[in-house]
């Protein structure tokens, strides 16, 4: 009596299609469940990576700082930090000290120099570029003063009669922006010569003793900047960042307690580590993504379990005779359910394990660019194991209940009525109601997102709106297709036998056809929505930052370069332009150089077919006034320009323009302005496609004054855009998985009807139909099904994405609004895949006719 259970794994091989369906269904369910956990955790890791990228590298751990600290308290403060740091896993601290500006310092007999003495532990000298000299005890002087004033090695500065240590090295000044290692020390170590910083040089001591002796000799009572930090490796995961944060808190508490016991508790100014806010933001990003994708993940896993329930019913019907015999011989419902598990358990377990492994291995492909926490990986394994446990339990339970009702109670449950009720129930009304509820939340999402600081507030219902719209359209399409196939017996197309046979085959398999149609439409629509919204947010970040800055970088300058008195540096000449800006009449007036504007500004974001032509047009003088391109025109916009310029004569209208955005404004060519009018422009800026650091260095070398500068990387906080993108990348993943399910369902449906297709195909061939016509018939059948799913899915998905992208914009206050990216590449990809699948399925169907044996046809 135990033989059927022992032989169950081998007996399962008699129906390989059932094994494949069970394994694939389990794989997809476990893949989606595992992917949801990993996606959220990776979002937290990506947010941590983003925050560490915009945070000073010595600010990840504890930071101790004190302005105007008494020099006498520094040894005790430093000793306390060094004493407690090892207990919390930190290495040696890096101490930075910077004195007040010391005016009246004398070099070579000239007492008019202003310097600041400085020292930084460990790699401080390694992070400076030594141009002359050695590391011998003494002072390192900045190269700008040394070269300009001919101060050489060995010079001994003095201050009010106190002789300081000799100059043993000449280093390259730290200029703004400084190397990243000096980020936290910018206020003390960097000389901003672009804004005429009054300090001549920051003079670094080569060692602690030299610095202490110099400070003591001068008699300084306080230190202007005092900073203790640790250069810890950047945390790669959110859990690592949280651990680092907790250790930092503990160290700060211990140091405070130690100094309080010494009567110096007021020296510890900070209550929390600097990186705490970054950890909070990363935690919020993870939670936002998790809450957003949780409903979809639960629905996906439940659908997968329901699919395994369908597999259980199919297995019960196929093994019905054997189960009746085993029941008659005394086997109970539980044992019969165990037989199902024994037969299908291995492929289900193998598929689930493969799905969980694939979710982890492919995380870098579908997920955010961050590392998941080890605890999240463990939770993902638990979710996969739980999904498998539920699937196997459901498999055994369904078989056991059916066997109990039929074999023990003698009741055969009639499902025809239930199926008919389920088929006619208006499910699309329920999903439409959910879509409407999501739309009401989505309509307020843009205004609610501004309340997030810095991330938008999450509304899961708003995020499910696109999916429910696509599902509603898919169900409605399936219902119409069901009704059309129900009435298809009235079709008389025998003059076109390929089309008539295709219609009859579709009508004969209405349930599988509508099922594949729903899944295919939902897959393509969901994929289009997810990709459209995810890519739309990332493209919005690029567009908004480019329009706001005007190019890759914008450097505000003074009039000499704007008037042409200082030539553009050669390294920037081919990638930069100079722009003037006027205000005062309610409209921003941008004065551009038509010869260089298109190569230096972000003109690829301007919706103009021929911007060069427009610039040439406004470069021609007009006796009626100043020829302009009008931007963001409104009814209240006046044609009056700032004083000194004639009224505007509009040559063209554009909705958006670099630096102006969509605000009301005018673009004027500098070629139509007189030198006196150009001289009256108060603000000039250099727009360049070169990196900010390169542009700054080039303009600095040319002696250009730069009071302000900005780059696209620093103009906007990109994390809110990325969080929306990471959320909808899971929606795109769900669409991709459903697409795989739709393709497999189509191929399985063809394979299931293999005998039927073989018999029908053999008959029509014997009746004179050509093989080419038979192939065309199958291609028409499968092409109509796939084509309808593609057309409806693409139209619905792209439309919903286009409607949703602007409303998910986390920076609605900044023009232009988010827009749907070009959907043509996605549409072409879907069409190519659809054609390939239809061709493969048609080839399988025709091949079954050609390879069928006579005995198989007789059995059919």
Automatic annotation (TrEMBL):
It is a multi-pass membrane protein. Residues 730-851 form the ABC3 transporter permease C-terminal domain. It is found in: Cell membrane. Keywords: Cell membrane, Membrane, Signal, Transmembrane, Transmembrane helix. The chain crosses the membrane at residues 289-313, 334-358, 378-401, 421-442, 462-485, 506-528, 719-750, 779-804, 824-846. InterPro entries: ABC3_permease_C. Residues 1-42 form the signal peptide. PROSITE patterns: PROKAR_LIPOPROTEIN. Its main location: membrane. This is FtsX-like permease family protein.
């Amino acid at each position: 009596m135990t033989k059927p259970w022992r032989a169950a794994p081998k007996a399962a091989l008699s129906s390989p299609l059932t094994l494949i369906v069970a394994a694939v269904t389990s794989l997809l369910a476990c893949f989606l469940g595992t992917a949801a956990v990993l996606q959220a955790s990776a979002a937290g890791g990506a947010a941590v990576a983003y925050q560490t990228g915009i945070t000073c590298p010595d600010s990840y751990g504890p930071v101790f700082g004190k302005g105007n600290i008494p020099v006498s308290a520094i040894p005790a403060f430093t000793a306390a930090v060094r004493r407690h740091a090892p207990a919390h896993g930190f290495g040696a601290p890096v101490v930075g000290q910077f004195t007040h500006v010391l005016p009246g310092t004398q070099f070579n007999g000239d007492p008019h120099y202003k310097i600041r003495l400085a020292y930084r532990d460990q790699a401080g000298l390694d992070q400076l570029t030594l141009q002359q000299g050695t590391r011998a005890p003494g002072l390192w002087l900045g190269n700008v003063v040394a070269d300009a004033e001919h101060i050489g090695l060995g010079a001994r500065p003095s201050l009010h009669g106190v002789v300081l240590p000799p100059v043993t090295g000449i280093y390259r000044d730290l200029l703004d922006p400084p190397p990243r290692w000096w980020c936290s020390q910018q206020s003390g170590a960097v000389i901003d010569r672009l804004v005429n910083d009054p300090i001549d040089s920051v003079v670094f001591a080569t060692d602690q003793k030299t610095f202490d002796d110099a400070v003591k000799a001068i008699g300084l009572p306080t230190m202007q900047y005092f900073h203790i930090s640790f250069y810890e490796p950047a945390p790669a995961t959110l859990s690592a960042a949280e651990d680092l944060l907790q250790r930092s808190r503990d160290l700060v508490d211990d140091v405070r307690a130690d100094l309080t016991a010494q009567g110096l508790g007021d020296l510890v100014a900070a209550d929390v580590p600097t990186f705490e806010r970054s950890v909070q933001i990363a935690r919020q990003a993870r939670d936002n993504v998790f809450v957003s994708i949780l409903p979809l993940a639960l629905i996906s896993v439940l659908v997968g379990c329901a699919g395994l329930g369908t597999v259980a019913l199919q297995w019960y019907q196929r093994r019905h005779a054997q189960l009746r015999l085993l029941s008659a011989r005394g086997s109970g419902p539980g044992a019969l359910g165990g037989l199902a598990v024994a037969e299908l358990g291995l492929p289900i377990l193998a598929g689930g394990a493969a799905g969980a492994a694939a979710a982890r291995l492919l995380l870098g492909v579908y997920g955010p660019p961050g590392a998941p926490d080890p605890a999240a990986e463990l939770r993902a394994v638990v979710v996969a194991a739980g999904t498998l446990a539920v699937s196997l339990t459901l498999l055994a339970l369904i078989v056991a209940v059916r066997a109990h009702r039929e074999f023990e109670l003698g009741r055969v449950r009639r499902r025809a009525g239930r199926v008919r009720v389920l088929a006619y129930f208006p499910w699309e009304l329920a999903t439409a109601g959910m879509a409407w509820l999501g739309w009401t939340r989505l309509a307020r999402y843009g205004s609610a997102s501004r309340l997030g600081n810095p991330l938008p507030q999450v509304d899961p219902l708003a995020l499910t709106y696109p999916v429910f719209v696509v599902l509603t359209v898919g169900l409605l399409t399936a219902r119409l297709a069901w009704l059309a196939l129900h009435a298809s017996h009235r079709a008389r197309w025998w003059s076109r036998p390929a089309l008539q046979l295709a219609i009859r085959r579709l009508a004969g398999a209405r349930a599988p056809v509508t099922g594949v149609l729903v899944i295919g439409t939902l897959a393509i629509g969901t994929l289009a929505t997810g990709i459209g919204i995810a890519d739309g947010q990332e493209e919005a970040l690029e567009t908004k930052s480019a329009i706001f800055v005007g190019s890759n970088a914008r450097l505000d300058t003074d009039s000499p370069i704007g008037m042409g008195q200082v030539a553009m540096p050669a390294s920037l000449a081919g990638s930069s332009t100079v722009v003037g800006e006027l205000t005062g009449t309610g409209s921003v007036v941008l004065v551009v150089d038509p010869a260089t504007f298109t190569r230096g500004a972000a003109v690829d974001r301007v919706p103009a077919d021929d911007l060069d032509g427009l610039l040439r047009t406004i470069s021609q003088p007009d006796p009626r006034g100043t020829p302009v391109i009008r931007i963001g025109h409104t009814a209240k916009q006046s044609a009056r320009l700032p004083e000194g310029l004639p009224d505007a004569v509009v040559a063209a209208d554009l909705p958006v323009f670099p630096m102006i955005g969509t605000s009301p404004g005018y673009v004027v060519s500098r070629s139509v302005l007189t030198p006196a009018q150009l001289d009256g422009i108060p603000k000039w800026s250099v727009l360049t496609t070169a990196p900010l650091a390169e542009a700054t260095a080039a303009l600095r070398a040319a002696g250009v004054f730069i009071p302000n500068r900005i780059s696209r990387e620093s103009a906007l906080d990109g994390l809110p855009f990325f969080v929306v993108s990471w959320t909808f990348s899971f929606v795109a993943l769900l669409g991709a998985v459903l697409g795989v399910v739709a393709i497999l369902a189509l191929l399985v449906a063809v394979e299931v009807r293999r005998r039927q297709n073989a018999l029908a195909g053999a008959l029509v061939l014997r009746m004179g139909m050509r093989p080419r016509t038979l192939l065309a018939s199958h291609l028409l059948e499968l092409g109509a099904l796939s084509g309808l799913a593609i057309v409806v899915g693409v139209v619905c998905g792209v439309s919903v994405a286009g409607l949703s992208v602007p409303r998910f914009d986390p920076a609605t206050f900044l023009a232009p609004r988010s827009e749907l990216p070009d959907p043509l590449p996605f549409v072409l990809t879907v069409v190519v895949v659809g054609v390939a699948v239809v061709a493969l399925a048609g080839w399988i169907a025709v091949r079954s006719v050609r390879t069928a044996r006579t005995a198989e046809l007789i059995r059919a």
